[in-house]
Specification:
The protein is mostly beta strands. 13% of the residues lie in helices and 43% in strands. The protein has a domain at 57-167: Immunoglobulin-like, CATH 2.60.40.1890. The protein contains one helix and eleven strands. Strands 1, 2, 3, 4, 5, 6, 7, 8, 9, 10 and 11 form an eleven-stranded mixed sheet that branches.
Amino acid sequence: MTHSSRCRRLAAVLPVAAGLLALGACGSGQGPASGPDSGSAGSGSGGSGSGGSVPKLSVSGAYMPEPVTKDMAGGFLTLKNTGGTADRLTSVKSGAFGEAQLHETSGQQMHRVKSLKVPADGTLRLSRGGNHIMFLNPERKPVEGEKVRVTLHFSKSGDIDVSMPVEATNFVPKK
């Protein structure tokens, strides 16, 4: 498939995806969910609040709503950094998708970004209607009950592998 035909195809589905993300934001929880499908990364003796310590990252609440189209899916999770140094989520990879992009949402507009900051002693939430992962070109459409393996890449920390459960299209995480 050529770049221009992929762009036209993406342009046709993005308004639908944006609408679904906006609808999903209504009443969606922003807090982290707990569960066995989380990962962590960090090295050294990074303590909380100690200036100059390394990032110490953990992942919780990861999920992917079952996509309504076969061309793309959203990914949501919470990254917590208990280290005294900020880090950046620079990319996401998954063997189940041809491409994964980081998106920042401002007002009603999504923008692709090169990275997202995970603040020192802070949290980055990837959620419906907000910052998120956009997965494109799936090998096949994921269905509820499956798990999608993804690898999160960071500028300072090691990679974190996450098993992202596919939930119902209208899934709302518990607060």
